[in-house]
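Example record

Each entry pairs one chain with its bound ligand, 1,3-dihydroxyacetonephosphate.
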Amino acid sequence: MRKRIVAGNWKMNLNLLQAKQLLEEIEKGNWGSEVEVFLFPSLFQLGHLQGTNQKITLGAQNFYPAEKGAFTGEVALDQLAVEGIQWVLIGHSERRQYFNETNAVLKTKLDYAIHQGSKVIFCCGEPLEIRENGSHFKFVKNQLEESLFHLNAAEMKQVVIAYEPIWAIGTGKTASTEQAEEMHAEIRSWLTEKYGHDTAESISILYGGSCNDQNAQELFACPNIDGGLIGGASLKADSFLTIINA
Ligand code: 13P
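Structure tokens for the complex follow.
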């Protein structure tokens, strides 16, 4: 059985007080062991938020792939590990777009994280012009081949994949369930080709991009959609809890 996961990516939102309050409100929710809930707050808040909560796994939006040293403004996996943070996001389209994280850079970060024993949500997804010219499968496959598919099957088990079409992120324009399921099924078929049926069936693939309390249930009902990576709708307890329960 694949893990069902709902992860909130808070991006660069919320001050510490707001983050603490929101975490507390979300923790009041009732959900069963069939779903795992993750939150990715601002890096500096991780240590402050980590102590108080039991039900939610906190992860880091970013890290630098080196042990330590002169990398002003960056955070190391060891620094995160001391705070009990094991999960990291890699490949988010905003990191690709604003911080020039190419497929090659992402491969380096991924390898570093995997060898340190971290667990990874690896994001992929195409921009609008690629969707419109019909080459979205090729584009996403290339992202995965250049950054992810060199891992062996045991290493892949440390990875969750998130498909986030860029044209759906923060736009209110969700991929239709057909568009999302079709891409997820493709990703699963590539995993089957590379790693075999059992490994492919064990890897969770999340959908992200304007997923909200109105559309989550329909998306999560698709056979290859194992949960969501949620931006805007994770910033309000009631909508995020509705998504978790979906
Ligand atoms: P939105 O849910 O705000 O579209 O953001 C999705 C996202 O980028 C999550 O990582």
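The two ends are 18 Å apart (CA to CA).
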